[in-house]
Specification:
This protein has strands at 20-31, 34-46. It is mainly beta and 68 residues long. It has a two-stranded antiparallel ribbon. 0% of the residues are buried.
Length: 68
């Protein structure tokens, strides 16, 4: 069984339903005395044919903060 894939130049990204929708993302890590909020109220959509890149400082996100 084969699956046909349209070349990216043939993909209409303006009217297509998003492949991924994230609304009001919040990411908190428990730490001594409360929480560390790493991400606050982030929303985005990724349509077919689009690429999303996330950039951070070196080692950022390599592991959650210690919950001592």
């Amino acid at each position: 069984m084969s699956t046909a894939v349209a070349p990216m130049s043939d993909v209409d990204t303006t009217s297509a339903k998003p492949l991924l929708t994230v609304d009001n993302l919040v990411l908190r890590y428990p730490v001594r005395g409360g929480y560390l909020e790493a991400v606050s109220d982030v929303s985005f959509q990724v349509a077919r044919g689009e690429t999303l890149g996330l950039v951070g400082s070196p080692a950022a996100g390599s592991r959650p903060p210690d919950a001592r």
